[in-house]
Amino acid sequence: MNKDSIIFSTSLNYIITIVLLIFSFLFLHTSDKVNRQEHAIDKYKTIVKFVHKQNGKINQEFKKLLNDMNYELLSIEESSRVFEKDRKPIFIRGKGRDSFRVYEIEGNNYLIFGRVHDGFIIKDNEYSKKDTNIYLSSVFILLFFVITFLYIKTLKKLSPLKKLKQNFAKLAEENYDIEFEESSKKDEISLLINEFKNTAKKLKDIKESRNVFIRNIMHELKTPITKGKIVQELPKSEKNDQILKMVFNKLESLINEFANIEELIATKKKINKKSYYLADLIDEAKDILMIEDDLVDCEFENIKLNVNFKLFSIALKNLIDNAVKYSKNSKVIIRTENEDILIINEAEALKDDFENYLEPFSKKSSNESFGLGLYIVYNILKANSYDVNYRHKDGKNIITLKRI
After folding, report:
1. Where are the domains of the chain?
2. Number of other residues whose CB lies within 10 A of the CB of residue 101
3. Mean pLDDT (10-residue bins), the chain, 404 residues
4. Helical segments of 159-237, H only
């Protein structure tokens, strides 16, 4: 195990804490035993002096004094019963005939002066055993389980760090498919993991947008490039030069627009919006698409929209392009219903759920693929506070742009 790791340090702290806890328990247990012995010695000083003054004489007065002091002199039969088994004294004090021993038997204290079988055996009737070891043991066990529980809980909280390290390695290899259990906890590690997941998702979006851009730029540039090639083959003239110049301007415009789209999809940043007429947006879309006016039937009310002009025009351009491409009569109708914008063409209904066509790399048949189209449309519309939905009615596909 790595000695510099947090888990190793936590485990080491746990072991040290448990060892210190055990030593504390042993120390308190020993101290308690010594304190009880010292207390007993202080308590029995008087009775020891009294017994020694008797010089081994037992009479009624002696017994009465013992009873008055809450002590009891045991008879031979009682002594034999109590000490029928070998017992070990709690402590021994004094030497020779002045010595005495204290035994603790069945919760009672017994003082023996001389030997067990021929000496005085006095029972302390006032003694009540208070076993503090039970309390010490209970506290020790409780602390042990609490510390162990906290240790296990801490390890559990730290366990995602190992997976986090592995995912950092995956991230370095541009693998953004990060797997973590969902957590609503607010501890530092959970917050770090959530931030890591958000970062990985953002990087994945950036990579995805890059892939969309690279895979589809040729598709979008195909029309102006084709027109440029055709013009290049035509006889040189001022008109053809103007057309060729216009083609290159459109190519430059498309590249700039793609850069804006890529940045929008990757960063999800807020865009600048102003109020524009729908007719101006449609005209811009047709100019970008370089489509003939008679292919677009404008049946809309010229409402004002609060949008980003360039990006919203690109979204309309993609919708018009797809509508014309898949239309049976190569035409598209643009209408309005209140604030909603409808893009309509005569075509077969989509074979799959509309939401699947909003994915950047949805695998559809070539005759039903929208390429970059709807993915870009969806992201641009969302940035402009619009939603897009689809329905098929009376042999027509109807895509509706609805203000959110």
Report:
1. 6-133, 202-269, 271-403
2. 21
3. 76 91 89 78 74 71 79 75 72 68 78 65 73 79 93 84 78 73 72 80 75 67 75 79 78 73 66 93 88 90 93 90 90 93 93 80 47 74 92 94 92
4. 160-172, 188-233
Q: How far is CA 249 from CA 216, 253, 258, in A?
A: 19, 6, 14
* Other beta carbons less than 10 A from residue 120's beta carbon: 18
The dihedral region occupied by 171, where left means phi > 0, alpha psi between -120 and 50, and beta the remainder, is alpha
Rounded Cα distance between 147 and 26, Å, is: 18
Q: What's the rounded Cα separation, in Å, for the pair 325 and 397? A: 13
Backbone angles phi, psi at 113, to 5 degrees: -110, 115
CA-to-CA distance for 134 and 393, rounded, in angstroms? 84
Q: Are strands 274-277 and 332-337 parallel, antiparallel or unpaired?
A: unpaired
Q: What is the CATH number of domain 271-403?
A: 3.30.565.10
Give residues with Cβ within 8 angstroms of 363, minimum separation 6. Answer: none
Q: How would you label 17-29 residue by residue, b for 16+ Cβ within 10 Å and e otherwise?
A: beeeeeeebeebe
pTM: 0.48
